[in-house]
Records
---
Amino acid sequence: MEEPLHRIDWYDFNPVVSYANYLKCLPGYQFGPRFIHSHQFIYVVRGAGTAIIQDRHYTATEGDLFYYGPNIVHCFRANDEHPFELIGVHFELTGDLHTSFAGATEEPEAMLSVNPPANLLTVGERGPEELRVPESISMRDSAIQPLLLQMVSHFKSASGLAAVMNRSLLVELFYLLSKHIQKVEQHYSPQLKILYTVAKRLSQSAALRYDRSWISEWTGYHEDYLSKNFKTQFGISPHHYHMLQKIDHAKELLSHTEQPITQIAEELHFNSVHYFCRVFKKQTAFSPQQFRLVSRML
């Protein structure tokens, strides 16, 4: 699996919209080849055209969403008969709300690059909640168009509150994109649907001691085969994922019950309270006692 060029955890994801615009293209209008210094989404509101991202060619039609990152060469050309109307949103993955738009650099010969950079963006830790942003995906039946139109409107108002609103709208867009991709992938891949089912069952079994035989019981496949596919898809093993869900369950018990830590460790089937405390701190940076105190502060 190719390692993403841009990776950020959901906890650190604090995006900034640096530019947003709605463009009604004339017949045959073209921008690029060019590259930019930020990330960008291009959404086709209506009409048609072509998109070239590095050496990959796409037909761009209503509802299509395109992504490219910094220094990724791209070119868009409107159809001669039915030119597309586009929404473009430039953004940074994190930063100050005063972040300014760095513009674009025209590179007529850039498409000829022998070793172009990878156009990869991943948000989230490895696991079922990890979002690998696709270069091109149809979002026609999703709710992202109203979000993008709001971003354009807020950007034009150029106020501090509008910048905050655009940050929240962009976070919501990424959330909708994540859910949409999961839905599409599971629809077209029965195998992937099985892997998400395994992840759900592991979460539901968080209070139990991990048992490798669950995998074959739940799916009918050999545990080694499914475990390998699970790790390939989500980047972590089923056992590791189960442990993360166990820690999440411990957080709930620490926050909302008065159970002693020794009892929580026993209930979640840790070998000892010392092992529980060590694992919990490794995953959260807090001891169970510290987490309980922090979770009850206002």
---
Amino acid sequence: MKANALKRVAGALSAAAVLVAGMALGTSTANALDAPTNEAYIQVNNLTEANASSSTLKLFRLGTYTNIAHTGANLTSVEVLTDADVQAALRAAIRAADSSAYEANIEGSDGKPKTYYTNPLAFIAANMQSTGFADTLRKIANDLGTGTNKVTSGTKYGSYAIQDDDWQTDKAVNLYANNAKLTKNGGFEFTAGVYLIVSDKQAGSPLEDVNVPMIVSSTIYQDAEMITTFDNQTLGQVDMKTKDGEDPDKPIDPVEPGKPSVTMQKKAETLWSTSTKSLVRYTVKSTIPSNWSQGDARHSMDIYDAPRNGVTVYTDLETAKTAIGNLGLTVEGTTIKHGNNEVGTAQALKLSVDGTDVTPLTVDYYRKADTAGGESTKLETPTDDDAIKAFVGAEPYTTGTTIINATMASGVTVNNAIRSNETYFHLHTDDVMGLNATATGGDVIELSYLAIVDLNNGGNDYGFKFDNKEATDGKDPEQQSKPIDYTVHNIDNNYARLAGGEVFKLYKTTYNKTSKQYEKGGQIGELSGSAVDATKGDVVFAGLGAGYYIVEQSTASTGYMQTNNVKYTIKISGSGTTAAGVLTVAVPTSAELTTAVGSANVSAFLNNPNGLFFVSSDGSHGLTTGHHYVMNVKNILQLPKTGGAGIALSVIVALVLGGFGLVSYRRSRKSAGSVIA
């Protein structure tokens, strides 16, 4: 292997102790626990009751080092060799994580071996610092630890049962060959190399964490030197890592016993790591309830996010750039680079709807309460308060396994999403659909920001609400408001109820994001008028949510004109914050309908000959104010003169007489012509 390649691998291995450990969400610094001075070791730090009590660590060696070169304690170059008994599992895990990379580097589609076929761990090491490899690495480690291609079913491994003193006093454990507490199974021997570490810790309460598999490179002891660094990065150090806040698109964990997860999903993407810190882009997202649309009554939205201890959120772009520079990276414009490699984009805390950023963005920030249950203190704005530009997280107060809920600042209802003693920020709007002029149900709302994570990332508490309601189980929170029934009443020209064959069809509309207009969708109902006396002539479409609907009379009542059938549009809207989440029905004005569907498409949404569809405005003629009516007529002389339909008979008579006058005029001219002739 060439010298430059050796250095690349060495750098990759040092990154493995950072990036792979905890799957790119946390890094480590050594605890106060003394490490061995004359043999290779791995130190697992930041042990807590939640992630370590009554659990066992298992170590599976993936590979060893060879051709080691160093200057004192600093590694300058090294090669890595994959253990024969894990080669097949590593190849399969890499293939499952990235089939294209697998075919290019390990085994071609024709079945012929490639460069890394017998040494797949070297492929991982060589790509550790490649842009975007962190997610691939996460998949590989999880697969090896708990997935289809796990190596943990093997019998050759070391095991270490964590003692109470390990997490209560030392907060760390050292894993090395001569540790009497390290049990060796199936011929396992601890040597300098690369290991998969798996914990059997399972969550028994919200305060207990499920740990993720970690791939870690050990230190090296050679030439009477303990080699612990490479380019100022630390070997053999790793924090215990948990799933909280780390799995892509994982619904958030419950924040109190028995409380279901809320609908929001949080994802963390590591952009870069050093031996002590990771630069992470967090995204917090949910979808607008699918039954909401433009023109609804206002809907509210609240997002809460409480970073834990060791997580610093950068809400201001320039402050973020400075922090990024302190990691040894450069920022050109907003492009973050390590050398010539792009690793991500610098940004301030931002909110987007359907991919479009919301500006200006108003966010409230709160400092932790001084005492358990104490009221939080609202801070100023990022412009005025440097503590907000670099917003530092804190651990919540706990008592045993009971989480103490916070008393929030006046007027802020958090409902247990945030716990006492945490710092948190809160984004609120009273008009979700107003955030983006083209927003519609099902659009993704995403809050994103950059954070630097040091030591263990204990996760975040966070919540996402629409109309002050938390939707559950990670699903699209449909029907926040209770669906309603829509009724149209059929009457004759004397305003009496009819029931004799009238048929109405109902169509849903869809929103075209390209044209930014609504379009006629598929038919969702077809009903005949009721023949029951109490509801005679009524057509009732049940269980409708918010949105535009087209109501089309396909058949008039038996014995009535079939050429005057109506078609009109209704809009159902409303907010879940109203009593019982009530939706209401309205008839859009001509101007509103034209804006919503486009002038060329109005005919598909509206055809109301002679105003036979109308909404009773005053309850005259024994009708009910606000109810919707369709008048059926047997001939044009029965068209209403005044009242509900609002069409004067004189207009129709004028048309008839006008036509008669034209005929008479032509006849007169013909007669006159005969005389002249």
